[in-house]
Amino acid sequence: MSLPDKLREWFEVRLGIAELVEKRLTGYLLPRNINAWYSLGSVLLVIFGIQVVTGILLLIYYVPDADKAFRSVTAIMNDVPFGWLIRMCHAVGSNMMVAVLLLHMLSVLFMGSYKRPRELNWLTGFILFNLVLGISLTGYLLPWSQLSFWATTVATNSAGAIPVIGGYLVEFLRGGKLVGPPTLGRFFAVHVALLPLLIAALIGAHLFLLERIGVSAPPFGLANTRTRWAGDRFRHESHPDGIPFYPTYLLQDATSIFIYLALFFGVVFFNPYLFFPPTAFIPADPFKTPPHIKPEWYFLANYQTLKVFPNELLGLMVQGAVMSLLALLPFIDRGAERHPLKRPLFLACFIGGICVYLAMTIWGHYS
């Protein structure tokens, strides 16, 4: 027996690798009508990995001090070998992570994959989405530019509209009355330690639920598009006539990942400042408010909603009601039907909600 064969045998008798491959790859069957939208979860795992690696590399040179933060980011861009590439990958990746996560959640909504028994899958995904928004918001302040300073001032001001606790909440977020060095310290700690750990834990929980309950079949091309789970006992949804994860669907995963990487590096190399307005390149000045300060694109709808209503409290209440409705949707929509064309009320709300979100985002951009 050759040395490689001996090594393989050594690991095989201790770990049962062949059984593991059979159970998790070649023998793991997915619905025969599974589509490309299901691969967005794998794309998100790749994005999260890129964000972690580039974030660790940025930590080597970034200085979380209000007097040095902007200069350290400038040095990363101009002096550190490939520093500009690492920072651009991290900044562009944070925006694209929100976009891909939005698409993933919309596909889950459209195909009714949030319905019972997958309420916990939806809830963990919804919390993950909010944590990603949180890590993007906290990372926004770290360059300590005019944009990041005043966008954070506007964002934290909104919490002050909450009755009774609003003032305390603003002071807690900022570490003082105004955005300043304590705010940078808090946001830095939350951005590099707390939120990545929470996101990693939620991803683990989400994958555990996916493995435990099984992959839902898309409601397209099937005679019966209703949820078959009766709710009387646990049942893993298996697909004995399905396709193997390896190699069949792994090729689809790889295709989606490479398409994403092509778009991602296309932005990084050919339009790297797509998400950077001019105020992102000016150091923070607490005594000079720039005109027309705007949040990132994924907060523009929230920003415009606060402007539409006569007071911020009403705007926050409306947004809170919408987010609560989305979080609790699997517990509200208890119908067994999953095909969107057989649910006209859902389809109208789905299309209407997307139109309103896009309209508020565009309005917020040009207002």
Automatic annotation (TrEMBL):
One annotated GO molecular function: metal ion binding
GO biological process per UniProt: respiratory electron transport chain
Coiled-coil regions listed in the entry: none
Annotated compartments: Membrane
SUPFAM superfamilies assigned: a domain/subunit of cytochrome bc1 complex (Ubiquinol-cytochrome c reductase), Transmembrane di-heme cytochromes
Transmembrane feature ranges: 36-63, 84-110, 122-142, 149-170, 190-210, 257-276, 313-332, 344-366
Residue ranges constituting the Cytochrome b/b6 N-terminal region profile domain according to the UniProt record: 7-219
Keywords associated with the record: Electron transport, Heme, Iron, Membrane, Metal-binding, Respiratory chain, Transmembrane, Transmembrane helix, Transport
One GO CC term on file: membrane
Pfam families per record: Cytochrom_B_C, Cytochrome_B
Membrane topology: Multi-pass membrane protein
Stretches assigned to the Cytochrome b/b6 C-terminal region profile domain: 235-367
Protein origin, superkingdom: Bacteria
The protein, known as: Cytochrome b/b6 complex, cytochrome b subunit
Species: Geobacter sulfurreducens (strain ATCC 51573 / DSM 12127 / PCA)
Lineage, highest ranks first: Bacteria, Pseudomonadati, Thermodesulfobacteriota, Desulfuromonadia, Geobacterales
